[in-house]
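Milestone M4 deliverable, item 7.
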Amino acid sequence: MRTYAPLPVSFTHGAGAWLWDKDGTDYLDALSGIAVCGLGHAHPALSEAIAAQARKLTHVSNLYHIDEQEALADKLTAIAGMERVFFCNSGAEANEAAIKLARLHGHARGFAAPKIVVCENSFHGRTLATLSATGNKKVQQGFEPLVEGFIRVPFNDPGAIEAAAAEHDDIAAVLVEPIQGEGGVNIPDEGYLPAIRSLCDRHDWLMMLDEVQTGMGRTGQWFAFQRHDLKPDVMNLAKGLGNGFPIGACLVGVKASDLFGPGSHGSTFGGNPLGSRVAATVIDIIESGNLVEQAEARGKAMLSGLQTALRDVAGVRDIRGRGLMIGVELDRPCAELVSAALQQEKLLINVTAGNVVRLLPPLIITREQADRIVAGVARLIKGFLQG
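Output delivered:
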């Protein structure tokens, strides 16, 4: 079906941060499959783990114990400081699980129609429930009637959440992204997540974080919430968890750990032996290579380089980032820069929210590759704005 409008290139293979097309032309990947391939392409240790597990066992069923799944659960809950995890196949499915948890929590409190607070400009997925939670009318258009039960407030505004609490006595949870990715790489104030944690504690709500894009080292921490002295009640992952293999996860803390019981949720493929082995290997490679710390250092250097190169360029509104999640906001639509980057700089980038150049390079990016991305993006933006 025509659900995509692909660019005029097809890649045949990759290695690290590089991709090659059918003609043998090499491209530098500053997008990582939209924050997915944090380890780059064809990582040898990951490729070997996939092959070894495929030779052994790919799938059974969650009707049985799966050792690989339990090992992955131990790793993930340990680095996140959470209690339990449900495995699925995507970020949307992880967010669906969170929505179901919120409703269970609300019904346990006696609410007939529990509500979830969500944000403007958010993105949580394209299933009916997650697109209803998403704060983007383009994503929702044509799919009405939407799923009910969401209260929308401005991002980075704890007062708006407090006001919602005054108007609604049946709120069960708050679902937010620590940094809005699709919404434009929007980074909230330092006190935003702590304020949400405080509100959730005061009102007996679940604090639910969509870390599908920010998780797995992307922002210079394993998870973006770890910059603060807090823990969410629910946290959702996907994208970088499998480095391209489809796997998602919904992690819960103590408050939400017993909401799901046998039969209340499930997934045919979620957490199967192959997916679990892949994700556990991703974690091992990130840990052994100190790639979380590297993401922080490389991201700071790239952000500084872009700020220096574009400091006095008229039309650049803002340059912001956290780790290897960087956005350059312009004063006009700039979607054409994606094709220009591909053709002129042999560089993979993205434009989101219409006017924000988004960079999501792999965690394994070298200093030289990072410098090349900065130089190429700066040239593109200058040419676009000054031409």
